[in-house]
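Blinded run. Sample ID left blank on purpose so nobody reads anything into the name before looking at the predicted structure. Input follows.
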Amino acid sequence: MKAAIFDVDGTLLDSMSVWEDIGERYLASQNITAEKNLRAALHTMSLEQGAAWMKEKYQLDKSISQIIEEVLKIVSDFYRFEALLKPGVKKTLEWFKERNIQMTVATSGNRELTEAALARNGILDYFEQIYTCTETGAGKDEPLIYLKAAESMQAEPNETLVFEDALHAAKTAKKAGFVVIGVYDEENRKNISKMKEVCDCYCDRMDAAIENIRLTI
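Blinded prediction complete.
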């Protein structure tokens, strides 16, 4: 292996929960107790749809755009001040660094918030580059972000490890010829069996993959 690409949310950072309970967090900030099934109600909605639904459901005296702005502020604060590393991340990154394996980030998230969270947790400097789906122009249902990241490290897909927690992203990377390491995240636990089928290696924590990787480097 010549290079490694890392997803952020659910892989490097324990951050998926903020998206799962953002409705509860927002209503709590407004001193409103959320109903028990709020998470399920908002699950399939876009940010705009969710804001409109909460405005009507909880009779919020705010515009939809104001609700969206306040929701995004909560998310921003979470990344800047709260989001922590997943278990084994620092050990894994240090292991790659010691072996001169280049590393980049490929995320569906916001660049500024990603950089803030990685810097606060002391791992930003491990990475050569950060690629975002927005800047790349395609989501992780397409391999473009992985291909660009590998190209920047002058590595072919079959020479590059991709660390992911999400099934759709793992499938995309695997289909494009990358060596895929699946990392467990609580929010994606329903897809464990499918992840084990798709990934070259699947582990409960990132550093558990090192023994397998050592055989190929």
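Unblinding after everyone has recorded impressions. The chain has a mean pLDDT of 93.
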